[in-house]
Structure formats: C-alpha cells, structure tokens
Amino acid sequence: DPNMKAGAANEGVLANFFNSLLSKKTGAP
Amino acid sequence: MGQNTILEKTREFFQMCDIENKGFINRRDMQRLNGELPLSAEELENVFDTLDSDGNGFLTLDEFSSGFSEFLFGRKIS
Q1: Taking CB atoms and an 8 Å limit, are B50 and A20 in contact across chains?
Q2: By three-state DSSP, how is residue B72 classified?
Q3: B77 — pLDDT class (breaks 50, 70, 90)
Q4: Please, are residues B28 and B62 in contact by the beta-carbon 8 Å criterion?
Q5: Which parts of B33-77 fold into alpha helices (H)?
Q6: Which ipTM did the prediction report?
Q7: Contact, A19 vs B77, CB < 8 A?
Q8: CA angle, corner B19, sides to B50 and B28, nearest 5?
Q9: What is the CA radius of gyration of chain A?
C-alpha cells in the first residue's frame, strides 16, 4: 500500500506540521 | 482533549490552510504556509501527499481530519 508507506516515511513531518499549527494557534514559540 | 475540541481544532487548522474558504486545500494553499510555519516547501509537499489519501490533489476536511487524528493518537501532544 503506497499510502501506508508514505505515511510511515512522513510521520515525523506530519507531526511537525500539526505541532507547528498548534504552536501558531496558541502563540507558543 | 475531547472529541468536540478535536473537531473544533481540525476546523480551525483546516481554515488556516484554506484561507479562501473553498472547502478544500490544494498544493498552492499548502505552499502558502511556507512563510508561516517552520517547514520547508519540500516538507509541506510531503505533508500534502501524506494527507491526500486518495491522491486527487485536493485535501478535504475529512482527509485533513484523518491525518490529524492519526497524529493525535499516534503521538501525544506535550
């Protein structure tokens, strides 16, 4: 399954993305 | 975080990406975040590809929400 493969490879990037959105929203550095 | 809060956050984040309120996010919307988030253009491209589970080039709220849930349940927010 290519999606699963991509998901595993990009897990860190996805976490980074959502963490950044959370930080942006809360105004945390 | 309760289910309603998650839903609310998902909508907020979706709207932060979908600034034109189209109801979907495309690659261009994602690249706009380049200046706002500490992610490179390539990383944003990866995020888009990961979230766009059907690969049609449009991110719907459903796809976005799935990715966010995966993130929340896969990794706890500190």
Answers
A1: no
A2: helix
A3: very low
A4: no
A5: 41-51, 61-74
A6: 0.85
A7: yes
A8: 50
A9: 12
Contact (Cβ atoms closer than 8 angstroms) between residue B77 and residue B70 = no
Q: Which residue of A has its CA nearest to B39?
A: A17
What residues are paired with B59 via a beta bridge? B25
Q: Do B71 and A15 touch (CB under 8 A)?
A: yes
Query: % helix / strand / coil in chain B, to the nearest 5?
Result: 65, 5, 35
Q: What's the confidence (pLDDT) of residue B16? A: 93
The answer for residues whose C-beta is within 8 angstroms of residue B3's C-beta and 6 or more apart is none
Q: State which residue of chain B sits closest to A21, comparing Cα positions.
A: B13
